[in-house]
Every structure is written in structure tokens, then in C-alpha cells.
Amino acid sequence: MPSKPLILIIVVLLSFTLLFGYLSYNFYGKKVEAESSLRDMKGQMSALQDSYDKQEKACRIADSITTELQEESKVKEKDKQELLGKIDKIPAKPKAPIQETTKNEEVDIDAVLPLELRRMLQHSYDNLQRQGASDAG
């Protein structure tokens, strides 16, 4: 029968072996989990990098378009100022004096209508008659 210190040593060694086995198993599981997370993160990082590159390219395009538009705007503003300067140099023509007429435009309905007014009314009446005949036909 083995002695008590020998049993104690065997129990301690067995405990350490079991502890070492448990820790190795636990750390191996965490290592596998970390590697899996790392692969996922690498995939996400490459997708984010692609997205960032596309965004950078779009920003560069937008900047170039904005720059071109600003240059065109400056050229148009310069042309506008030149035209306004030319317009300002054109001499102004004197305005004709406004003549106020005091002619009475009212017609007495009891009196005979003027000849021009009768012709205009007759012409309008004839036009309406022709339109009515063409619509009915």
C-alpha cells in the first residue's frame, strides 16, 4: 500500500492535470471563438473599405462638378456684368410727351349709334351666326 505522502502527490498531480486539461479546453474554445470573430470582422472590414472607397470616389466627382459649376458661374457673372455695362452705355431716348384725351367715349343709348359701332356689332353678329350654323351642321 502506498504511503500517505505518495497518495497526496498523486492527488495533487491529478488535480493539476485536470485543471490543466480544463484550462486548455476552455482557452481552445475561446481561441476558436476569437478566430471566428476575427474572420467575420475581416469580412466586414473589407466591405466597409469598399464602401469607403466608393464614397471617396463619389466625393471627388461631386467636388469636381461643384468646381466646374462655380467656374461656369463666374464666367456667366462676368459676361452678365459686361452686358450690363454695355446696356448702361446705351444713350436713353427721350420719352414722348403723354397726351391726355378728354374725348367722351360714352354713347347715348337713345341716340342713333355711330356707323363704326354698328358695323362692328353687325360683323360680330354675323360671325356668331356662322359659328352657330357650323356647330349645328
Report what the structure shows.
The chain contains two helices and no strands. The protein is elongated. It is 79% helix and 0% strand. By secondary structure, the chain is mostly helical. The mean pLDDT is 87.
Low-confidence parts: none
* Secondary-structure element series: HH
Q: Helix proportion of residues, in percent?
A: over 70%
Major sheet, described briefly? none
Q: Per the principal axes of the C-alpha atoms, what is the gross shape?
A: elongated
Structural class: mainly alpha
Please tally the helical runs, counting DSSP H or I stretches of 4 or more residues: 2
What amount of the residues lies in strands?
A: under 5%
Task: Give me the count of strands.
Answer: 0
Radius of gyration: 51 Å
Average the pLDDT over all residues and give the rounded result: 87
Task: Tell me the span between the first and last alpha carbons.
Answer: 136 Å
Keywords:
137 residues; 2 helices; mainly alpha; elongated
Offer a concise description of the structure.
This protein is mainly α and 137 residues long. Helix content is 79%, strand content 0%.
Write the layout of secondary structure elements.
Elements: H1 4-89, H2 115-136
